[in-house]
Amino acid sequence: xxxxxxxxxxxxxxxxxxxxxxxxxxxxxxxxxxxxxxxxxxxxxxxxxxxxxxxxxxxxxxxxxxxxxxxxxxxxxxxxxxxxxxxxxxxxxxxxxxxxxxxxxxxxxxxxxxxxxxxxxxxxxxxxxxxxxxxxxxxxxxx
Length: 143
Description:
alpha+beta
């Protein structure tokens, strides 16, 4: 076996271009295979699991006079105050804005959420903190 290894290294030293190409192909192949298997494991075999049981979640919507499906902030406060069966209520409004820098403008989508949003979903930050009621009170102006 030692003679075979010496012979292989002599052949690789004799053709450095071929050796470099072989090492490059092996590197790309191993890297691509590793990334695909990591992706398959993360998506299919062990997907990210939310802490919240989705079968225990309820969505509440309403329709105003203009046909929009939104629950008003006072209605949400009444639901929070008077409900005894629901653990927590959260509010989320998905909206967008146009961001412009010089001559270029792009549309950005984001959400405005209540201060207990992350706590109710069971999401805890690794670094920093989430929204706190002291800094972001649950008070929204009535339009």
